[in-house]
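A note from the maintainers: we've had questions about how concatenated examples are separated. There is no special marker in the raw files; a new sequence line simply starts the next protein. For clarity in this README we add a label.
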Amino acid sequence: MKLWAGRFQKEISQTTNDFNSSISFDSRMYKEDIQGSIAHATMLGKCGIIDKDQSVLICRGLNEILEDIESGKLQIDMTAEDIHTFIEGELTKRLGDAGKRLHTARSRNDQVAVDIRLYLRNQIDDLKLQVRNLIEVICNKAEQYSDTVMPGYTHLQRAQPITFGHHLMAYAEMLLRDLSRLNDTQKRMNINPLGSGALACTTYPIDRTITTELLQFDGMTRNSLDGVSDRDFCLELASALSIIMVHLSRFSEEIIMWCSWEFKFIELDDAFSTGSSIMPQKKNPDIAELVRGKSGRVFGDLQGLLTAMKGIALAYNKDMQEDKEAVFDAVDTVKMCLTAFTPMLDTMTVISQNMRNASAKGFINATDCADYLVKKGLPFRDAYKATGTLVAICIDKGLTLETLPLEEYKAVCDIFDDGVYEAISLEKCVKERNPYGGPANVLKAVKEVRTLL
């Protein structure tokens, strides 16, 4: 039986029913639907809108339905229109007329609005835990490799010396901001729309503070139209998830490069790699590639949500049914990516010597060489030009700044003395980059991030 039966003289066609149905994806909200209904029934009883005994009976029946679904005793009927119809129908089947009283002073519009807020609120808790776990793994790795010198890059060209720990902690900072965005989204989401009705509340003497407290919302929507037609919390969550995927995708791109033979800075564990069907030597970073690829999927979910919501007049429209598949898919995809990415990172092997070798060959201490001259009184632009000339000489002779003879230095600028070799030592170059936020302060950064977590 449809919840809206009575107005219509004909049965809905099977094609229309299939097109209209949402139970294939909103059935995952069965727990939240029951939770919201229990709060609503409790409020109806406390306000005297229905008999208190019937309120208790309805709540007991809903709890029994929840237990039966979770134990497998009750299977959700996937031919039902939606999860709300199924649960109310099952309640009525068990309780008779008492079950029919559950929907008093409520619309499916505010029912759906409360269900999705409750569901996504819980999903954000799971997501935050996964992001925190990834940050912890990053901190552990950064601590372990706080002194491992590697080239820092700009334009994908070797630029200045940093440490692998410092590079990793850049991603920890990005993920910390992702956590903050998830917290902000959850805070704005945690507002109770129940009691908004279809769009104009109800004439029954309801008390919305009761359901707000029972469902642990921070407050209630101030406008009933907004309460049933607002989905910007879905947009905000999809946006936050898209930014997480940007960060995971960038990280994945670097992992893919680092484990190639051209870099060979790391090696992924066999448990998180795959092979080739034809080339026996291959060890492919498929997890990182899939994470990189799935970022586009989450971006598409956000774009779909924005497009679905952009032209809808107040209040509720059926277009809004499209919110769930998109935001659910974004949540599922990010959770899946974090589940695979975190242990992949945790188990990778770092080849420190290859990072050190790459650092030595990239003239990444050229800035430090120029700074050495500046500290001796030479203007920076003159020091810059002199060092550029030295780099050109090194390239021509197949040398590095560390192996270039002192007479070559002096021929370019007579200020040089043998102290230059200490000044351009890669380890010293990193150690002296010690302002707050610099690569010499990895351990302090790790400590601060752990404190924030």
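[label: protein 2]
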Amino acid sequence: MTAEASTGDNPPVRVSTLELFFDLVFVFTITQLADLLEHHLDWLGLAQVVLMLGVIWWMYGGYAWLTNAVAPSSTTRRSLLLTGMAGFFVIALAIPHAFGSTGWAFGVAYLVVSLVHSSLFLGVGGPSAAPAVRRLALLNLVSALLVVGGGFVPPGWRYGLWAAALAIQIATPYLHRMTGYTVATRHFTERHGLVVIIAIGESIVAIGVGIAGLPLGTETITVAVLGLCIAYYLWWAYFAGDEERAEQVLAAITEPARKARTALAAYGYAHYPMILGIVVLATGVKTSVAHGFESLPWPPAIALGAGAALFLAGHAWFLRILGLTGVVHRLAATAGVLAAIPLGHWIAVAELVAVPLVMAAALIAEDIPRARRAGSSAVHTFGRT
């Protein structure tokens, strides 16, 4: 990533190993959500995943903003962060039956995560950020209480209360002005990039789980490599230069409130469909590689194509917010991978071939003009020397 200029005694903040440890705990929720969706691959299961990931992603983002503002450099801060990590871990453990017997555990752990976040932010936010942090803490408390309340009521009411909590979170930036917040660009973009790459790793783990117990022959290796290719093109879409350009765009915004709004839109809202796409894709990949040369039922075939499509559409939204190129290419790839879904219903390996091919074609088409411009620039520079 590009370095953000430092001034005086305030060098650019880098992501700490403790934050990376925190992200590993958070990504366990991705694993649990994918496992839940695999066992309930229908509209009701998807609704549960959408709601739970929504409220979880909001609080993950809150902790990313927190450690962006202040490093976990003291024993007290590290201890509180550990408490937040424990809360996320319990949330993940409760996910498989969160709409049944463990809803109370999900809710109580979520409240702990929210309270720890507010305590840390209020303690270190500083005078300029205090009013904004107090308003944020109040809105987070309201949504957390809705999640807790939902955990103790019958499942039918639980959907409504957790949906209300998510609605409040989506509306929160519009209910109070984004003033008093500062964004350390390098840390902020690096933190979100790390959680994306770790989450993409979940789709690779799904390949290994999917082929566990199968004989390691040509067919098994073929479908496993094809699954790996899909994960690779997710990486390419996000990391092959665009994360650096995104950092540069965000760093160039000098007005604090506008920078905070842009950061929230790009790395909060637009990242949600990307993470959701990884969850859905992991479910589809796991089933597809396990039955690579068989006809897939419609649900896993749809999950494979729709998961990739969600990720691509989310990244197109991300690029659009930041004014970067590549939106058209990702939207074209989104349409292409959705069109490949019927192939999986015919035979799984056909969709496993089509999805990475479509993604590769779109991303290579995007890179060709860049490569030509870079080559032309190199020729001109060489000529001048």
